[in-house]
Specification:
The complex is a heterodimer of chains A (225) and B (288). With 225 residues, chain A is mostly helical. Chain A has helices at 2-41, 50-57, 60-75, 85-107, 113-119, 131-155, 160-175, 184-208, 217-224. Chain B has helices spanning 2-14, 16-20, 23-26, 35-42, 51-90, 97-123, 127-132, 134-156, 162-170, 184-207, 211-231, 238-271, 275-287. The chains are: A mainly alpha (225), B mainly alpha (288).
Chain lengths: 225, 288
């Protein structure tokens, strides 16, 4: 009986060491994402300048490196990705948000799950991206957009609401394809409609005053209804 | 290329067969060509540009959720039937030991082959899923560990080890895959509950006049508590275990009090004509 518990103690101490190593890496991950997020905040105060995006993008290399370190640790305990998942879960949601948002600012496209995984240099066989983490990241992008739209219009980009509204309603419709459980992701998704509503209100304000380039009153009616 | 694809799509939509097909098969995820973007600009009704990707995500999520649901169901059945095994073990008395234990043995074999096997079938070969979906099947496994260990204790007076328990389960997994193994946390949490059962057993045996059994159980539980107290604080999720450790200590104290009662008032207890009444109050005292 005692021998068995000696072994357990050893096993649990080993796992404690793994956690310790993960914590150190994740703390670094935290600080990189904070800096990146601070850099990206500037898109709210200025029109989309490539310099801001370039600066934010410069951190991706560091992110890759840190995920590489996480992968290295998990490689030592094969099959136990989900045992330690909670360590990097929140940070990964933020990282997905940053990468997808950045890409959207640059190209107007939605970065797919596989593309996001590639951007982070993750190998799904060793250390992949959890699909729910990716989807939560997308919800974070959604909740950032109302503020972005408001500020862009304030700066004078009146065509921005239309673009964002199209993107967000497509995203919302796409999420409705999923069968979600009653969990955190579901809760985040439920918030998405308020983001969409807010963006549509801005769009309405701009259109009704014919501030946007198309200036078509008929279309305005449709959008508002 | 654009038009053929569109035709295929609309044909699928019109076909009466399509309506009957389950949702998951409708959106066959195929490659996402760069032209699809051009496609949507030329069609009258704009297709959702993210649809194909999200259909992949949906299929993945559905698969995982179905699996989780099956595990939850199996886990509930394991819990329910393991509890029956524990009740069976409690029917043990002075003269029926062998028959009671044989029946319990048969019962737990039934739980293993009928219900635990459903869990091992879902999880064999995938440590990732075993960890990811642990919350779905953990309650059942804990109860199963409890039933298996309490039975083993009644039979041999020893603790059934995790390795032995896992060996029993190996036969349920496909030999070509990595066999499902009981999670260390589930084993320890199951052992945490074992003490409560042993306490009940000790009290009822004392009440039945088998005082030496209480001493055996008392020593066993003391050892177990000591061993677990070294491991519990460093467990993965130790909140639940710490709660169990408190309960465990309470159970241990109850057993010790029973042993004390037997020691101090033992002589009266066995010979006295009032013994009947005394035994009754003793059992009530300790169990309540």
């Amino acid at each position: 009986m005692e021998k068995q518990f000696e072994e357990f103690k050893q096993q649990l101490e080993d796992s404690g060491n793994v956690r310790e190593r993960l914590r150190i890496i994740v703390a670094d991950l935290d600080s990189v994402t904070r800096v990146m997020q601070a850099d990206l905040l500037q898109v709210h105060y200025s029109s989309r300048s490539p310099e801001i995006l370039k600066k934010a993008k410069s951190h991706i290399g560091k992110l890759k490196e840190l995920y590489g370190q996480l992968a290295e640790v998990i490689k030592g305990t094969p099959g136990q990705y989900y045992r330690y998942h909670d360590h990097w879960r929140n940070q990964t949601n933020t990282v997905v948000f940053l990468i997808v948002y950045l890409n959207w600012l640059e190209t107007g496209n939605l970065l797919s799950y596989a593309e996001t995984q590639d951007t982070l240099g993750l190998n799904p066989d060793e250390f992949g991206l959890d699909i729910e983490d990716y989807l939560i990241g997308l919800c974070n992008v959604s909740s950032e957009l109302p503020r972005y739209v408001v500020n862009q219009v304030t700066i004078g980009d009146y065509d921005c609401p239309k673009r964002v509204s199209k993107f967000l309603s497509d995203l919302y419709a796409a999420f409705r394809i999923l069968n979600l459980r009653n969990d955190f992701l579901r809760k985040r998704f439920d918030g998405m409609k308020y983001d969409l509503k807010k963006v549509e209100e801005v769009l309405y304000d701009v259109k009704i005053r014919k501030l946007d380039s198309s200036g078509s009153a008929i279309e305005t009616k449709q959008e508002a209804s | 290329m654009c038009t053929t694809k569109m035709l295929a799509r609309s044909a699928r939509r019109l076909s009466p067969m399509a309506a009957k097909r389950p949702l998951t098969q409708l959106g066959v995820p195929n490659k996402r060509p760069a032209t699809s973007a051009n496609c949507s600009t030329t069609t009258m009704v704009a297709e959702n540009p993210f649809k194909e990707e999200f259909e992949k995500y949906r299929d993945h999520l559905n698969e995982m959720n179905d699996k989780r649901e099956r595990l939850v169901k199996a886990s509930r059945d394991v819990t329910q039937n393991s509890k029956k095994v524990i009740f069976q073990v409690h029917r043990i008395g002075k003269h029926n030991q062998q028959t009671v234990l044989n029946q319990a043995e048969k019962d737990i074999e039934g739980v293993t082959t009928q219900h635990v096997s459903r869990i091992t079938k879902e999880l064999q070969g995938s440590d990732n899923d075993s960890w990811k979906l642990r919350r779905a099947y953990s309650p059942g496994m804990q109860e199963y560990v409890e039933a298996a260990t309490v039975l083993e204790f009644c039979k041999t007076g020893t603790l059934l080890t995790l390795a032995d328990l896992n060996n029993r389960l190996t036969k349920l997994s496909d030999p070509s895959t990595r066999p499902f193994k009981i999670n260390l946390s589930d084993y320890l949490l199951g052992i945490g509950d074992l003490t409560g059962e042993l306490m009940r057993l000790a009290i009822s045996r004392v009440a039945d006049g088998e005082v030496e059994v209480a001493n055996t159980i008392c020593n066993f539980v003391r050892d177990l508590y000591k061993d677990l107290s070294l491991v519990a604080p460093i467990m993965d999720d130790n909140y639940e275990m710490n709660k169990k450790m408190e309960t465990m200590l309470q159970s241990l104290v109850k057993i010790e009090n029973a042993c004390y009662a037997v020691r101090v008032r033992g002589s009266e207890y066995i010979t006295d004509a009032q013994g009947e009444q005394y035994r009754y109050t003793l059992a009530l005292d300790e169990e309540g």
